[in-house]
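G., the chain you wanted modeled:
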Amino acid sequence: MPIKIPNSLPAAEILEKENIFTMESFRAEKQDIRPLKIAILNLMPTKIVTETQLLRLLSNTPLQIDITLLTTSSYAAKNTPAEHLTAFYTTFDKIKDSKFDGFIITGAPLESMEFESVSYWEELCEIMEWTKHNVYSTLYICWGAFAGLHYKYGIDKHILPKKVSGVFKHDTLVPSHPLVRGFDERFYAPHSRYSGIYSQEIENCPQLVLLANSEEVGPYLAASKDGRSIFVLGHGEYDAETLKNEYLRDIDRGLNPEIPKNYFDNDDPSLQPVSKWRSHAHLLFSNWLNYFVYQNTPYNLEDIL
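Predicted structure as tokens:
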């Protein structure tokens, strides 16, 4: 949340130069506050795990948030109890006449498939088109980010020779950008995917800005220049044991996976992994909610264009 200070306080200019968000008294006195409406299109097979991870990060704010959980109508989830979906989820056709402050499209284990071969691709395209005029800012995660970059900007993913799995160092490229406000110059974040995007393709797109990159695994964070679309190509929302559980799952499937990099101490899977990306993840989500949703969405959602 911003700090409300007198307009003429000497600290105001100093804090502004340090990229600390302040609000002049005049603006603060005219602010109207209401709950933020955030919808989550959960495409992950383990929906309960994913919704818990995301809600944990969204809750780290003094703002009141109303959450709507969405699942696809063109594909029936197989790994989540039907009673859970019935009780807590709805579908796009039920909310398409509403508007939202923010929208999240999660990842999905579909990196090796062509987008057009995904059973719910047409439905997802309809939803992404709808967000342009009915959502102020949309956050795309991992496969959801690949899909969004492909649909909105024609940037295609490429299949990697082997799965990227582990926790990697990233450089913050534009420290003055509000989405990375407070980030360390280098930070850690998890990746778990079979596909990638070349950093240069994002840099060459005039509508996008690349905000964080890893020399080892490529881009992590990008945004449209108007802030209406945010792309996270990793999994900052992961719990400490998520990569371990995926690794053990792949062993059980006979896939002979590599040990996730930079994850277990001494690369020893018998040791308990420790999260070293949690603070970054909380900061990313709170920055998105504050600077790209709360501070910019019209008070009257019907005014979203």
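Residues 1-5 have pLDDT under 50 and may be disordered.

Shout if anything looks off.
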